[in-house]
Amino acid sequence: TQRAHQAQRQLAEENAVMAEIGRIVNSSLDIDEVYQRIGSQVGKLVDFDRLTINLIDRENGTATSTFITGIYIPEIPTGRVFQLSGSSSGLAASTKVTQLILPQSEQELADLFPPMVAAYQAGIKSFMLVPLLSQGEVVAVMRIQSFEANAYNENDARIAELVGAQIAGAIANASLYLRQVVADAEIKDLAKFPSENPNPVARISAGGMVIYANDAASKLLTGRDLEAGDSTLESWRELAEEALANDTPKEAEIDYGTRIISYSLVPVPDAGYVNIYGRDITEAKEVERLKDEFISTVSHELRTPLTSIKGAAEILLNYPDEDPATQAEFLGIIDSESDRLTRLINDVLDLARLDSGQMRWHMSQADLVSVIGTAVDSTHALTVQKNVTVKIGSADGLPPFESDTDKLVQVLTNLLSNAIKFTPSGGLICVRTRLLPNLDPKTGVKMAEVSVSDNGVGIPATELDNIFNRFQQVGTTLSDRPQGTGLGLAISKEIVAHLGGEIWVESQLGKGSTFFFTIPVAQTSN
């Protein structure tokens, strides 16, 4: 049919343009050249009157308009740096979802994103913002704009996302190249022993005399930093003698109590001295320790249900004529411990997917009342077993919004499960929601707040800062702490952050805890 032929032609054109974009991306590390050439290709697939690429700086919470093609708008020039908070680019970057902004009036746009009014006054009536992701992180946002009202639809978004994936690769390659150039410069600077280097750098002779020491090294040598002083020089002298004697570089670590410094000693035998480069690895060592502890904990938690399953199975095998009631009891043990094992494995897999950026997100229209109901239903067996009451208080007027419903249910289920574990028999758990009155400064949209309160044992103030950390459990000082790996809260934090919200806890020992999280509830795409 004519429609089928037209679809085939469109697909062939898409493939040809994508192939050309791929060739452009792989042919140059000059990102400005890549932007110019890709801009002309995008226009073959998606009509636009202005195209902007805003490079994201997560560390500073800003974006920079690095490339603009199309109509000139004086208020929005190339090189403009702006805050992500409250901007349309910030929304696309925080949600990692393409945003179609199709305002019906200037006032509607001003209410959503005031900085975009200048573009509207210049004639732009439709905006499509595409997050450019590389290895799961948003590196830039491509903003495609048109004079035509309601110019873009979901098919345009699909095509723009395909283009965006290729551009993200170009940006990542250019950034990698720039980092390599910077790294080469840093190596050259280290060779010159810059005094401003925060890590210890020194040069000592074969006899142990200090030829050079930057500020960081001098503090170690004089004892002004940590309890070092003469012991540091003695350690360096021994390591230097060994490196010179063998004419080979040497690696060593020195634990100063509060900090651990890793040293690389590079001998220069002809000159009779050794260059010493230090690096503070205290944080890296702590991460390594926490990972080892995590592996040990997970191994233990895996063995516990497996032991119960194996024990129950052996009893059933050895006593085949046991009465039905006993058989049902041991089959129940196998069933519940299998569920426990499955939950543990799923938590570990979720954490791995979040770390690698491979977690799948399914954005659709969500409803908080339905989300809460599903989470409460999924934990009903636990509440009955623990004899705990769950009370729900939902605010009126919460609008439907775009989010990942399954992930929201997962967060609430984790919070409810924790509350049930730490609430005594006969206790009360309250789930409340409310619409926050002001626009969120980070996302620029309305936010809903969800809270889960219990009247359990509470959390020590000293542990509140660590409660969402991964690889460790909070509450080890409590003798009646339930068993678990402590991954649920870490996973919940990652999910809430990805969806554009925040999560935190307030607690009093002996009175209970309240976990809060926020989520954007404005209609974020059309």
Give your account of this protein's structure:
It is built from 14 helices and 18 strands. It is an alpha+beta fold and 526 residues long. About 1% of the residues have low confidence. Strands 3-2-1-6-5-4 form a 6-stranded antiparallel β-sheet.
Would you identify the CATH H-level superfamily of the largest domain? GAF domain
Tell me the structural class. Answer: alpha+beta
Tell me the distance between the termini. Answer: 31 Å
Q: Roughly how many Å is the radius of gyration?
A: 29 Å
> What is the mean predicted local confidence, pLDDT?
82
Strand order of the largest sheet: 3-2-1-6-5-4
- Largest beta-sheet characterization: 6 strands, antiparallel
> What sort of overall outline do the alpha carbons produce when their principal axes are compared?
globular
Top-tier CATH class of the largest domain? Alpha Beta
**Strands, total number:** 18
Helix count, DSSP H or I runs of 4 or more residues: 14
Q: What do we call the CATH topology of the largest domain?
A: Beta-Lactamase
Specify the CATH architecture of the largest domain. Answer: 2-Layer Sandwich
The percentage helix is 40-55%
For this entry, give a set of tags.
Beta-Lactamase; 22% strand; single chain; alpha+beta; 4 domains; 5-stranded antiparallel sheet; Helix Hairpins; 18 strands; 526 residues
